[in-house]
Design brief:
Shape: flat
Helix content: over 70%
Number of helices: 7
Number of strands: 0
Radius of gyration: 28 Å
Keywords: Membrane, Transmembrane, Transmembrane helix
Strand content: under 5%
Distance between the termini: 66 Å
Oligomer: single chain
Number of domains: 1
Order of helices and strands: HHHHHHH
Structural class: mainly alpha
Length: 334
């Protein structure tokens, strides 16, 4: 049996993964468009129209899970996987962006709802119905978004592993997005449910038990703590990467400086006219000098941008930690 025939099932599995990644990406895009459309209507959270695309999203994720189970990355050539990895990375980035957009809007609308309910003139029965509806919908969003994102990242990891080999450090951008998304969901739901129902608890949905509600809130809070710690570790890794890039640029700048010094030493002292050659400077000499100056300016600008990016990253991480800590503390107090 030829090698091509042996690899055929694995190639089909890789192609299936990319195909179902595309399906999941499309359904997540529709979910994002649905949330944005509801936000533009400026309706309260409990008056949003029901989203009907969850079953299709769930089915696409299930197909992706089956394709992942069939794939074995170690038997395929890296050249074959390169295109698949590039497409999978695009899809995973798109799913991450859609999930973050959805969560940002829902998180804001949930906070607005809690503020409005404190001064609302609605009856207690209407408030209870709204609370139950919102909790159910947020649970659906949490379940389907996290499951879709998890499988998308898992599939991309597997394809990337087949191309580059096992590695302990995953790509920081969508690993951080995954952790941030999970933390936002857990924090938003925990704060909302604890605020609405209190530690004594009511049912998450009609017919539930108080004790189940209490333990689910506690579980969400504990998961939020764990994810927050992991977020800090991932950002620390990113800061180390930025520091390493800065050190590399600094070393490159020093190397250029030494080369220029060596050129000057090789030319020796200038003559009485202050030049290194008996004839007058040629236009080419002026062009070369201008290029050297431009290279030096570009290098300085890159170093400056790296410093600014590193400072902004530290500030963003600090603000994120403050927001997450504040949300957890508020959930505990309520």
């Amino acid at each position: 049996m030829s090698k091509d025939i042996q690899e055929a099932p694995l190639r089909n599995a890789a192609d299936d993964i990319v195909h179902y990644l595309s399906e999941v990406h499309d359904h997540m895009y529709h979910l994002s468009m649905y949330v944005k459309a509801q936000e533009e209507n400026k309706a309260p959270l409990y008056q949003w129209e029901r989203h009907l695309g969850y079953p299709a999203l769930s089915a696409a994720v299930s197909k992706l899970e089956k394709a992942i189970a069939k794939f074995r990355p170690t038997r395929l050539l890296p050249e074959y996987l390169s295109v698949r990895v590039a497409r999978a990375t695009d899809f995973s980035t798109g799913v991450s962006g859609a999930a973050v957009d959805v969560l940002a809007i829902v998180n804001k609308k949930t906070a607005d709802y809690m503020d409005e309910m404190e001064t609302s003139t609605l009856s207690e029965e209407t408030k209870a119905q709204a609370n139950s509806l919102i909790t159910e919908e947020v649970q659906k969003l949490m379940e389907h978004s996290t499951r879709a994102a998890e499988q998308v990242w898992r599939a991309t990891d597997m394809l990337r592993e087949g191309k580059e080999g096992p590695t302990l450090a995953k790509d920081w951008a969508w690993s951080a997005a995954a952790t941030f998304m999970t933390a936002c969901i857990a924090a938003a739901v925990a704060v909302f449910v604890a605020h609405i129902y209190g530690p004594s608890g009511l049912a998450l949905v009609t017919g539930g038990h108080n004790n189940d509600m209490y333990h689910q809130v506690l579980d969400l809070v504990e998961r939020t703590k764990a994810v927050t710690n992991l977020t800090g570790e991932i950002h620390s890794i990113k800061l180390q990467e930025v520091d390493q890039r800065y050190n590399n640029l600094a070393a490159l700048s020093e190397s250029h400086g030494l080369r220029i010094d060596n050129i000057v030493d090789a030319l020796g002292p200038p003559n009485a006219q202050g030049t290194y050659y008996p004839s007058t400077s040629k236009p080419a000499d002026t062009v070369c000098e201008a290029r050297i100056q431009k290279m030096s300016q570009d290098l300085s600008l890159q170093l400056k941008r790296q410093k600014e990016d590193m400072e902004m990253m530290r500030k963003d991480m600090h603000r994120m930690d403050i927001r997450l800590t504040s949300g957890i503390e508020k959930a505990k107090k309520n």
